[in-house]
Structure formats: structure tokens, C-alpha cells
Automatic annotation (TrEMBL):
Keywords: Membrane, Signal, Transmembrane, Transmembrane helix. It comes from the Eukaryota. GO terms for cellular component: membrane. Residues 1-17 form the signal peptide. The chain crosses the membrane at residues 52-74, 94-112, 119-141, 147-171, 183-203. Gene3D superfamilies: MFS general substrate transporter like domains (1.20.1250.20). It is a multi-pass membrane protein. This is Sialin. It is found in: Membrane. SUPFAM superfamilies: MFS general substrate transporter (SSF103473). It comes from Rotaria socialis.
Length: 242
């Protein structure tokens, strides 16, 4: 139901270009168009500053943070049913960032005598992990390099898929012989979360990077936008007078 409601909102609000958006000002349109690939009428002239991206400490802070965060996410996604069965004694058939780290750390001390508390901590931890994506580092590429946001996030997401491959093997190796080793798994998740947090706080940024600034070679697009806004304003005035 939530997905359907979101789809309706998306259809009503989404537009293909800032130029066609009715709810943002001409100045905001100009800023967006100047700092994205849409500012160029010739896509063949768009060049990616690969060296600047791959040598940027800000970008690498993002890559590391994304990867560390995904370690916890993939651990939750792939191993929680196993944890609830082996450590908490739940019947599976009936039945992520600093803030996620706090609640994941709490799981390390949970036993089957505290299984409902463990479920609450797990739910909060997963929920806060989602907040990291919705309003955290996932938005950084748009801030530091709007014109290359897709490329930067693509690189970041490539690194961040590695935990999805490694994490299940680590969980399996640690719990195969001793289910009590789940505490080690959650301690490991907490440490990885905090490492990502510290690196991002030290080297990360949300400021527009100098190498990401694109210059518009002509003002034709801006003039078109200004003319369009003036026409819309004139139409509104005429409608009010009538």
C-alpha cells in the first residue's frame, strides 16, 4: 500500500528535467542546470574527471563509509533468520552509522532469555540503518559533485557490494561450530560501523568539490528559463486581472 501511494506521488510530482519543474524558482533551476550534465546541449562534450574522483579523499571517505555500512546491512539481510533460530530460539516459520552501531552492540549481549529485547534492538538498528541511506551518506554524491553524482555513487555502490559476498562466509565460519559466536559477529559489525563513521567524520564532506564545478559556455539555456518564467508571471497577472 505504501509503495502504491509513493508511486502515485511520483507520477504526479516527477519531471524529466528541472526546466519543466513548476515548484522551483528560476534561480534554483539555473544552479541545478549549471552543475549537472543537463547544462550541456552536447552530451559528447561531457568528460568525467576520473583522476580527480579516484584521488579525492572525500570520495574515498564516502566509499569506505558506504562499504562499512553495507557490512551491517548485508549481515542483517542474510543472517538474521539464522540468528533468530540458533541464538534466540525462534521458530523461523512463524516468525544499520553510529546509531545502528549502538543497537547492534546491544545484540551482542542478548541470549535466548532476552529474545524479545533482542528483536526490539534489531528492529531499531535496521531502521536507523535505513536512515543512513535516506538522509545520510547516500546523498553526498549530489552535494560534492552534482554533475558526476551517478558515477560516484556507482563506484561507491560497487565497493559496497563486497560485504554482501564476504559477510555470509564470515557468519558461517564463526557460527558453524559454536552458535554462541553470534556475539563476535555483532561486535564485528559494531567495530566496522564505527570505523566507517570515524573515517567519514575525518575526511568526508558535503561541500561542492573544486574539480566538480562545471562552467556553462553560453547563457542560452538561462535566457530561455528566464523568458519562460516571465511569460508564466505575465499569464498569472492577466488571469488575476480577469
Amino acid at each position: 500500500a505504501i509503495g502504491f501511494f509513493w508511486a502515485i506521488l511520483w507520477i504526479l510530482i516527477y519531471v524529466d528535467s528541472p526546466d519543466n519543474h513548476t515548484y522551483i524558482s528560476i534561480i534554483e533551476k539555473k544552479i541545478i542546470l549549471e552543475n549537472t550534465q543537463q547544462s550541456s546541449n552536447n552530451n559528447d562534450r561531457f568528460h568525467t574527471p576520473w583522476r580527480a574522483i579516484l584521488t579525492s579523499s572525500v570520495c574515498w571517505a564516502l566509499f569506505i563509509m558506504h562499504t562499512c555500512s553495507n557490512w551491517g546491512t548485508y549481515t542483517f539481510l542474510t543472517s538474521i533468520p539464522k540468528y533468530m533460530d540458533e541464538a534466540l530460539g525462534f521458530d523461523i516459520k512463524s516468525a544499520r552509522s553510529f546509531l545502528p552501531a549502538i543497537f547492534v552492540l546491544g545484540l551482542a549481549f542478548m541470549t535466548c532469555q532476552h529474545k524479545y529485547t533482542a528483536v526490539i534492538l534489531l528492529t531499531i538498528g535496521v531502521g536507523l540503518t535505513g536512515c543512513c541511506f535516506g538522509g545520510g551518506f547516500a546523498l553526498v554524491p549530489n552535494d560534492i559533485a552534482p554533475a558526476y553524482a551517478g558515477i560516484i555513487f556507482g563506484i561507491s555502490n560497487t565497493f559496497a557490494t563486497i560485504p554482501g559476498i564476504i559477510s555470509p562466509y564470515v557468519v558461517g565460519a564463526l557460527t558453524e561450530k559454536d552458535p554462541n559466536n553470534w556475539s563476535i559477529i555483532f561486535f564485528l559489525c559494531t567495530i566496522i560501523y564505527i570505523i566507517g563513521l570515524i573515517i567519514f567524520l575525518l575526511f568526508g564532506s558535503s561541500e561542492l568539490q573544486p574539480w566538480a564545478i562545471k562552467q556553462i559556455e553560453n547563457n542560452v539555456l538561462y535566457d530561455d528559463l528566464l523568458s519562460k518564467q516571465n511569460n508564466e508571471t505575465t499569464e498569472k497577472i492577466l488571469n488575476l486581472e480577469n
